[in-house]
Specification:
Elements lengths: L4 E6 L4 E3 L5 E2 L24 E7 L6 H7 L14
Parallel strand pairs: 1-4
Antiparallel strand pairs: 1-2, 2-3
Length: 82
Amino acid sequence: MSELTATLIIGRYQSTCSRCHRGTLMSTSHHTRELGYGVPAGKRGCGARFVDTATSDIGYTAKTLRELRPDLPVGDPLHRTH
């Protein structure tokens, strides 16, 4: 079975996983917890490993993404699924 991968989409108030489009922590390497309004505490994420970043916020630049997650490359903002 191949590893699930995803883009970490970083927004001003929430980050999401490109694979399942659910909220996630910006600081993790994998989507292990689902976050967001109305999501039960401890709900598991899809498990995808984040391989790059993109943004849904027009005010964020590639430089901002590199500062927030220097360990991940900046991906194509239009390509949000793997």
